[in-house]
Amino acid sequence: MGVAITFNPVQFVVRYPEFSYLANTPQLQEYFTEATMYHRNDGGGPVKDGTQQTLLLNMLTAHIAKLNAPLASGQTAPDTVGRVSNASEGSVSVALEMSSSELAQWFNQTKYGAAYWAATRPFRTFRWRTRCPYNPTPFFFR
Length: 142
Hints:
With 142 residues, the protein is mostly helical. It has 5 helices and 2 strands; from the N terminus they run αααββαα. 18% of the residues are buried.
């Protein structure tokens, strides 16, 4: 039904050059593997086009990398989680908000996750399939 792809770090870095410092590390492959926990990549998902599957998984990999990867300067990734709901400048104050009931908020923490959330909207809609019409006549009277 769906399609499975293999991760190409070179293609990923071409699209997301801000992660070029991760290109030759096993960490980037691990981020892709984690992305497949959120987006099905075993050939059974709803995405039927390989190019589209690659784009979606790369968006999700970039989202996970942005949340977890150390910064290019060698500093660790920030530990903040959630969207900024309030900020002030004098004496620096930031308020973060994260509702555990809304999956969209987790994706909207980064521009990559927001793009993924918007791009996967057609795949999150409910598909109703009716079963065969009911025939009240027993099979032995046909």
